[in-house]
């Protein structure tokens, strides 16, 4: 097996592990404030993918390296273009729910005042894409 192919497969493995851990944090709504380690690991996967092409790969290594480049650069790119910051006036635990209306999953109109007197957990989340 060529060195570039091994490097491409390693790069893809690193990218897949990074994506898996990142998605775990997203599902837990626990994205760290300091994302430097994630950015470094994602970009390392992309750099290793480029290095695999420089070293020379077979078709398997080329596919793996290409996917590593895409995965390794996609998340840092989306982080750069869609900063997520908590607003100064964000709703906190224990606050009264603000009045709003929205369409629910069944297409029915939902009014937040229908929740008055009930304990409610509302989770609004926007990921990096």
Query: How helical, in percent, are the residues?
Result: 40-55%
Overall outline: elongated
Structural class: mainly alpha
What's the pLDDT, averaged over the residues? 85
Q: How is the largest sheet built, in terms of strand order?
A: 1-2
Q: End-to-end span in angstroms? A: 36 Å
What does this structure look like?
- The protein has 129 residues and is mainly α.
- The chain has a domain at 3-81.
- 53% of the residues lie in helices and 5% in strands.
- The chain has helices at 3-27, 36-55, 59-81, and strands spanning 101-103, 109-111.
- It has a two-stranded antiparallel ribbon with strand order 1-2.
- The longest helix is centred in the first third of the chain and has 25 residues, at 3-27.
- The relative contact order is 0.17.
Q: What is this structure's SSE topology?
A:
Elements: H1 3-27, H2 36-55, H3 59-81, E1 101-103, E2 109-111
Antiparallel strand pairs: 1-2
Helix pairs in contact: 1-2, 1-3, 2-3
Considering the chains and any ligands shown, give keywords for the structure.
two-stranded antiparallel sheet, mainly alpha, 2 strands, 129 residues
């Amino acid at each position: 097996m060529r060195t570039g192919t091994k490097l491409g497969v390693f790069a893809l493995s690193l990218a897949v592990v990074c994506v898996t851990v990142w998605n775990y944090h997203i599902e837990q709504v626990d994205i760290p404030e300091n994302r430097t380690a994630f950015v470094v690991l994602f970009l390392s996967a992309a750099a290793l993918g480029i290095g695999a092409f420089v070293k020379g790969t077979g078709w398997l290594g080329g596919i793996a390296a290409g996917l590593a480049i895409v995965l390794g650069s996609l998340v840092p790119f989306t982080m750069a273009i869609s900063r997520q910051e908590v607003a100064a006036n964000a709703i906190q635990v224990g606050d009264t729910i603000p009045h709003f209306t929205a369409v629910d999953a069944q297409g029915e109109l939902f009014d937040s005042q229908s929740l008055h007197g009930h304990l409610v957990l509302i989770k609004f989340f926007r990921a990096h894409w």
